[in-house]
Request: fold
Amino acid sequence: MNTNEITVAGKISTRVSLGVLISFHIVACCISLGYLSRSYGNFHIFYDAELLNGAIATIAAFAALSYLFLLVPFSFGYFLSFYFYTMILGYLWLNCFSRFEYNHWLSGASAVASMIAFMAPSLLVTSPIRRVFTISETTFYRALTIILAVGVATILIAASYSFKMVSLGQMYDFRDKINMPSPLVYCIGVVSNALLPFTFACFVERRNYWRAGLTLVLLLLVYPITLNKIAFFTPMWLLAMAALTRLLDCRIAVVLSLFVPLIIGVVLYAILGISDTRYLDIVNLRMIATPSNAMDIYNDFFFNHPLTSFCQITFVKTLVSCPYTVQLGEVMQQAYRLGNFNASLFATEGIASVGVLLAPIPVLACGLVIALVNRFSSGLPPRFILVSGAILPQILLNVPFTTTLLSHGAAVLFLLWYLTPRSVFASQSGSVAVERKLEEHLA
Reply:
């Protein structure tokens, strides 16, 4: 078999695998939401068998959009788009059964238009950008050591303010009592979501496993400080993504990263029912269904209340009058009593800021930013991009885009991708080139 035949066979195999996995994922999402409706009506998650045909038709039509994931190569935009696609899929299902009184048809159409607006630039714009400023390999390696030192210092200082070893079930009893200076809170967000995942990915890619292990230990110490679910799962999540990307195409790894946790919850519920829903609470509800549910709740609230006109962004709030004196998450808590209900850019920069009619416009703007990020990271190994950026899609599902950029370190990570010398991955350049070529043949 010659090279062209191998390439064609690889292209077909990867496309078929992706298509099958995404199809199963779509079905699993709907089944999971159906199961959740049995026990979580207080979260406004409902199901009605009489409306099932309409829901199936809606999901089937939206599923056609997933064909794009079979055609384009991996990028950070691919990673993020698939997570948002799953969120919109879940919202369209919930929208069919929602008992809130707002214009469901208009909101559903707006959600689909917003998804297309985001996917178009973030999936299709991946060309390299001219790097005006570069750093040497020596400087880069020194920077990794400095980042580790900054991580250690930040964790030690933060631990002097708060450090409690408690379970996930107990963390809410103590989290509201944490009191740290605001600059330190920002530092923890940048260190845990950007700097340490970046160094971990660098060490894994360079096969420096001792230092990669040290990085994971540092990340383990963030949870007792912040009492945050994402911090608790970050070390395991990074390790799992590193393992997946060693074995599989990065696009398949992206799909599996959501499908596997989701299907485990579905299977456990099918076996155990309501006798033990701990896994379902954490994964199927909190991790996957909640971002979709947030869109339903934000639609309901902002169909009957003033729009924010972006005043939830701190510097904008100083320039315009704002109808809300507290953060959006607290506004939702006061209205629905479901906790501090933050949401993704689709709900905040979109629905809350400009309403459903104009929501695709700010979502498109966010997609254009991610397109620029694709260009910043062009030339880096796909595995490195996926592992170093593994935490950000989880955050962006539940946090506004502007907040993620500034408070959670996304902007810092994107800058690091731009500055990273491509030559430090020279030993992997051959395999990276082959992987890139195989992906580009799918387009």
